[in-house]
Amino acid sequence: MEIYLDNAATTALDPEVIEAILPFLTTHYANPSSAHSAGRRVKEAVDNARRTVAHLLGASPEEIYFTAGATEGINLALSGAIQAYDLSHVITSRIEHKAVLQTLKRHEKEGDIETSFVKLDERGNVDLYHLENLLRANPRTLIALMHGNNEIGNVTDIQAIGLLARRYNAVFFTDTTQTMGKVQFDLAETDIDFLVGSAHKFHGPKGVGFIYIHKKHHLKPLIYGGGQERGQRGGTENVVGIVGLAKALEVSYRNLDASRSKVCKLKQYLISKLAISGIEGICYNGESKSIENSVPNVLNVSFPCLSTGSVVTKLDQIGIAVSGGSACQGGGASHVIQALACEADKENVRFSFSKFNTFEELDLVVNAITRIYESDPALSAHTGWKRTASWA
Question: CA 47 to CA 61: how far, in whole Å?
Fold first, then answer.
């Protein structure tokens, strides 16, 4: 049995993406910077991909720059803005991706910036009143707040944050790695200055992403070289990845409503199956249980601790891929879970779905989890477990 429920980490390539990139793995392999016809043909493919991404996002082609992924884009956005605009203050949250937190930590250690952390409620939602107070006290600051959280799925109101940014003359960066390809963007109607995406999160290839830089801005480059990406990022373009990224985003937008509907139903189905599984003490972290307030493909569940290992490991041993962290065995919860009002003695499991998952797979997963708890020798004395279900 092989069941993949770790789509927030990476996704399978869409068949249309594979078809689109094959020619650039075989016959169209020239360097796009070359002046000959073979090079010009490949450069046109890169330009077409840029136009596709821009059109889908409501941006201009000159606002889209290709990168090696969201982590590079995050580093470029934060470091580039801090240096280009001589910014000395950043507002972020304690549940951002480590690429944000570690980049800011480095700049703070070097004395470039002071970092303020916006308050979060017990479910991890941004306190917009506190954010406005921070902006009022620190005009001309950099805001770095993600759109969709990669662990608990919370969706942040980036429209409201953008409006606050304009009101207080701040610069607004948002990480859309978990929402790109899953929600509709119209950047012409937003107050976002920079955002990043990564192809492998929406059924494109790994090792390629993009950064949107509003045309009124410039960033100090991280990588210098031959002037590629209009001088913003040196190095020969990853043509296979770029073509695949554009096709993956195109396919995602074409099937947006149908894919979202299916993934939402998968989430609701898993919640309903867990509710009748007989495992007591289950709770849901952040807003991940909410269809309205979270990305549709993420469900973060806290389970009672086992006495013989972790749920994640035991599922992996039978071919079910999920992710998570456990305080049960002394491993410690993630920085995201630690920032929430969660029970400390739980194992947190992130299930993340894609359009390729099925309801039958979820039946097998819940069956497997229930068997794991049934077979744990110490659970008869565990207050978080009551054997109420019978399994053949």
Answer: 8
CA atoms within 13 A on the CB side of 180: 33
Say which residue the tokens 């192809």 belong to.
Answer: 199
In sequence order, the 6+-apart residues with CB closer than 8 A to the CB of 92 are 100, 101, 104, 115, 116, 117, 118, 143, 144, 145
264, 283, 328, 342: the catalytic one is 328
Is 280 exposed, middle or buried (CB count within 10 Å of its CB: 0-12, 13-18, 19+)? middle
Q: Mention every residue, 6+ apart, whose C-beta is less than 8 A from residue 297.
A: 7, 8, 153, 182, 263, 267, 352, 353, 354
pLDDT per residue over 234-271, tens digit each? 999 999 999 999 999 999 999 999 999 999 999 999 99
pTM: 0.92
Is 264 designated active site? Answer: no
Q: Which two tokens stand for residue 231?
A: 């001088």
Phi, psi for residue 324 in degrees, rounded to 5? 165, -170
Q: Extract the tokens encoding 364.
A: 């097998």
Mode of pairing for the β-strands spanning 194-198 and 171-175: parallel
